[in-house]
Specification:
10 helices; mainly alpha
Amino acid sequence: MNGLIELDLVRIGLALGLMVLAIALSAWQKLGLEKSLAIATGRTVLQLLVVGYVLEIIFAINNPWAVLGILMAMLTIATIVARNRISKKIPNLLPIVGGSVLLSTAFTLAYVTLLVLQPSPWYEPRYLIPLAGILLGNTMNAAAIAGDRFVSTLNASQLDLETHLSLGATPQQATELYRKDAIKTGLIPTLNTMTVVGIVTLPGAFTGQVLGGINPLNAALYQMLIMFILAIATLITTILVIQGIDRQFFNANAQLREFSR
């Protein structure tokens, strides 16, 4: 296979031309998205340049504490973003989301690192950081989607829930169908991707490896691994988040609370 085509400043400048065209198209159609597109472009460039330089340093140092520090920073940001998308008024939501994402990500990374890849050393940043980034991004989105759906449904179903409680149902029994629906909703993006991967879509990880010169079959196997870890991590995260939110909606006397977003 041919070597990787390096993207220099000229090529990146030409690529930025696509965003200039997007902004011009928005202005032509009077969509009002010009500022949003410009800000998104600027943040994309800045954030990816920063992470590129930081990871280059981390890869060179190859120190477990530096790797764990990066992972904790990523976890913190993912937790805050997911919490903000669900609600800022539900008590203890930040530790609920953070603990759920941490547990699911740690379990999945430990399984993959110790049983599947077995890199040496175990904290090899080339594997640990990219896999953690993929997991955190997807579990964050799954938690936000499921949590938002669950909170909205509970707030809109106050009368139905109170009726169940008045008839002797426990809080868990009253919200059972809503919990299942929210968890399924959080899993929809992952399941949809798994259904059409390789047929309709070529995921970014697969495409990036192929563009980087990796054998397509090997890239496909890595993508298979990624889909499997995303499925289990997002499922664990959504279950824990929904159960945690469920408990916050009822007081010690099994009385229903209401939280607006």
